[in-house]
Design a protein that fits this description.
The chain is of the alpha/beta class. The protein folds into two domains: 2-87, 2-Layer Sandwich (Zincin-like), CATH 3.30.2010.10; 101-225, 2-Layer Sandwich (Zincin-like), CATH 3.30.2010. 44% of the residues lie in helices and 15% in strands. It contains eight helices and six strands. It has helices spanning 2-18, 58-72, 81-87, 90-103, 118-127, 175-191, 202-208, 214-225, and strands at residues 22-29, 36-41, 44-50, 140-143, 153-156, 161-164. The strands form two sheets. It has a three-stranded mixed beta sheet. The chain has a three-stranded mixed beta sheet with strand order 4-6-5, covered by helices on one side. The structure holds zinc ion. Residues 184, 188, 199-200 line the site of zinc ion.
Length: 227
């Protein structure tokens, strides 16, 4: 790890200097979600960057560092093409998703629940034409271990992982309600990883409303969440 941190320091240091700051420390760290954090005192900064980039090429790390330093300088974050192409590649997703799933302690790691299978939900959504195979390509669906009541599903567009609350792994929940939650999260996959942009855009909401029983499903979930 130390050698990796030295490399990181050498890559970030010139970019930090160009921005009138001094890099004191740079390190990779391993939170579940991809992120960068920093501490600033005067012109001195310490930066930590997600270890999902630990084996990325120099130009990718440099490109992402520009985004981080821009944010430290309170500029509106912009993400470079070199960085985006790297983290959107199947190669990146395939290797980092394994780590992400290990770190996701609340996921069972399987789309097969006790009573329901998420793959069957996806098949129904594909058969009905609401989803196309391309939009959910290279993705992974899993049930959660804890039955979240307020958040029925979540999506990491970067890792292309969807988690669905095991509260819905129950035949007493109408199938169209489960499928609706899966549909919502699948729309995030369709949108893809686009940092710095709104995840529930106007366009997203329009697509969400295409679900045939949209109103009923929303109503059902609202009632379920407030039990
Ligand atoms: Zn959402």
């Amino acid at each position: 790890m130390k050698k990796d941190d030295e490399r990181l320091f050498d890559l970030i240091s010139p970019i930090v200097s160009e921005n009138g700051l001094d890099l004191r420390n740079a390190a990779f760290f391993g939170p579940k979600e991809f992120q960068a954090t920093w501490k600033r005192s005067g012109n001195m900064i310490d930066i930590r960057i997600s270890d999902y980039l630990i084996d990325a090429p120099d130009d990718v790390i440099a490109d992402f560092s520009k985004t981080v330093i821009g944010t430290i300088k309170k500029k509106r974050p912009t993400y470079g093409r070199t960085y985006l192409d790297w983290v959107r590649s199947d190669e990146y997703i395939d290797s980092k998703r394994k780590i992400y799933l290990r770190r996701s302690r609340n996921l069972t790691g399987s789309p097969e629940g006790n009573e329901r299978n998420l793959i069957e939900s996806l098949d129904r959504l594909l058969d009905s034409g609401l989803l196309d195979p391309g939009s959910i390509g290279n993705s992974f669906f899993s049930w959660t271990k804890i039955p979240n009541v307020r958040k029925f599903g979540f999506c990491s567009p970067m890792m292309r992982v969807v988690g669905i609350s095991c509260l819905l792994d129950d035949v007493s929940i109408p199938e169209f309600v489960l499928d609706y939650v899966v549909y919502h999260e699948a729309l995030h996959l369709k949108q893809g990883y686009r940092p710095g942009q709104r995840s529930h855009s106007k366009e997203f909401r329009q697509q969400e409303r295409k679900y045939p029983k949209y109103e009923e499903a929303e109503k059902y979930l609202k009632a379920l969440g407030s039990r």
